[in-house]
Amino acid sequence: MRATRLTVPALGASLVLLVGGCGDDSSRAEDPSADASTSTTPSETPSETTTETPAAAMLIDFGDEPAVKAQYKNAALRAVADDLITMVPSTLPDGWTTAGGGYRAKPQWWHMEYTAPSGDVTLDQFPGDTDAVLADQPDLASSGDVDLSAWGIGTWSAWDNDGATVLTHELKGSTVVLQGADQDTVTELAKSLIPAEDAPTQEG
Q: What ranges does the record list as Low complexity composition bias (predicted)?
């Protein structure tokens, strides 16, 4: 089969060259559009199909995060049982999907991952205050506060991480850290958060 596939195109090409060599070239000389269309098509095709993908936001790397599972409610409740007040989304904005969540008991770490139209978004929650949680992140630059008290979740601190947005909020001995490509995206996630024990039971 391989020999047949290699030789048939070569034979066909030879026949085309042979017929072309015997034929009259005057028709090609009189019709320049034939050569023009052939030469411009390859250069037009890439420009029409090329799309720019936005660069992924550089999110804080807290290390080897807990394994994420789509059905995360039981993991969230284990975190609650370990006295980590664990936040999860009630409903996500349109166009978002949830990869899932995971929990590690030692050291305590609640982690969730989402995909938004603007890119990846993460939720991390650790015991301790903001200074302790962000102690190893010297490149963060404070960018003010975001007042979300109208949604019952108080005021969050905003940070810039090399172009990515980070929001943090201290909650009963823990710190919630949200990250994404821009502040609007991350704020939308913050508005959706509720304690895990108040979240609806997952199906499946």
A: 34-52
Residue given tokens 């913050």 in the structure block: 190
pTM for the complete prediction?
Answer: 0.71
Kindly state whether residue 60 falls inside one of the protein's structural domains: no
CB 179 within 8 A of CB 122: yes
pLDDT at 204 over 80: no
Q: Which domain holds residue 40?
A: 2-49
- The strand order across the sheet containing 119-127 reads 97-104, 109-116, 119-127, 174-180, 164-171, 155-161, 141-147
Residues 6+ apart with CB under 8 A from 109: 62, 65, 66, 103, 124, 125, 126
Q: Are residues 20 and 116 in the same domain?
A: no
CA distances (Å), 203 to each of 2, 155, 174, in order?
51, 33, 28
Whether 58 is covered by a domain: the verdict is: no
Cα separation, 167 vs 142, whole angstroms: 10
Task: Assess if residue 148 is contained within a domain.
Answer: yes
pLDDT of residue 139: 82
C-beta separation of 60 from 161 below 8 A: yes
Distance CA 76, CA 102 (A): 7
pLDDT of residue 125: 97
Give 25-71 pLDDT, tens digit per residue: 444 444 444 444 444 444 444 444 444 545 566 788 898 899 999 99
